[in-house]
Specification:
The chain is of the alpha+beta class. Helices cover about 25% and strands about 20% of the residues. The chain binds zinc ion (ZN).
Length: about 270
């Protein structure tokens, strides 16, 4: 599933293509995404200039002169820049054609992605208004995570993955961040010391930044905006490495199940 780093990688990859461009046409091939794409959307966006491309959580925000396109990649989607004349493939659901002849093409086999248009402040939209802080923003700091963890018996990994507390820390990044912070994933959140909380904040940021620098991660079939694969997966410390030697100490990485998700950790490096 595309996670925050993949979405941010997509945003950065697309930014130079959309800057100062005008939308020539929105060609819809399939309106039945997670929510139906409004039929009036092509008329609403045609001719508008693109002001910029942003991100909130896992939503891409394509800011236009008089509104914002809100795009989510869903479970399996990707958005790529390519010549508008490039042959369409199965599961290509729309082309946002720019006046440069480049199209932003959305492909999504499972159709859990979405394309919506917001005319007012996009951050006030119901899908975005109640999102938790961004892990790479200043709001996500030791004091914030310290307050969240006090009195909570929930396992620290599950707390990290709770999108009502912090957005965009998926399974891979939670496992990797806990390894870097040397904290076992099943520890009760309330048992963390202030020092451990501080280490964890730094680790979450470091893991996400590293993943973004490496071009996103996670899916074997994940493609960057230019169609090349992400490389972060090759550098994972524990994720999906059960039984293999820990890259730090050489002991075997272990796996366990938490909330129906696999968790990986090194019993020697993490306590
Ligand atoms: Zn180890």
């Amino acid at each position: 599933m595309p996670e925050l780093p993949e979405v941010e990688t997509t945003r950065r990859g697309l930014a130079p293509h959309v800057r100062a461009r005008r939308i020539a046409a929105l060609q819809l091939y399939e309106r039945r995404l997670r929510w139906p794409v409004p039929a009036r959307l092509p008329a609403a966006v045609a001719g508008q200039r693109v002001v910029g491309i942003g991100r909130r959580g896992k939503y891409l925000l394509l800011k236009l002169q008089s509104g914002t396109l809100l795009l989510h990649l869903g479970m399996s989607g990707n958005l790529r820049a390519l010549p508008a004349s490039a042959p369409r493939l199965l599961h290509d659901h729309f082309d946002l054609v720019l006046d440069s002849g480049v199209a932003l093409r959305f492909n999504d086999p499972r159709r859990f992605g979405s394309l919506l248009y917001v005319s007012g402040d996009p951050l006030a939209h119901p899908l975005l208004a109640h999102l938790a802080p961004e892990p790479l923003s200043r709001a996500f700091d030791t004091a914030y995570l310290w307050d969240l963890t006090r009195g909570r018996r929930v396992a620290v990994k599950q707390l990290l993955m709770n999108s009502r507390l912090v957005v965009g820390v998926g399974n891979i990044y939670a496992s990797e961040a806990l390894f870097r912070a040397r904290i076992r994933p099943r520890r009760q959140a309330r048992s963390l010391s202030r020092l451990e909380v501080a280490r964890l904040v730094r680790a979450v940021r470091a893991v996400l930044k590293y993943a973004i620098r490496s071009g996103g991660t996670t899916l074997r079939d994940y493609l960057r905006a230019d169609g090349s694969p992400g490389y972060f997966r090759q550098r994972l410390y524990v994720y999906e490495r059960a039984g293999k030697p820990c890259r730090r100490c050489g002991n075997r990485v272990r796996a366990l199940t938490q909330g129906q998700r696999s968790t990986y950790y090194c019993p020697h490096c993490q306590s």
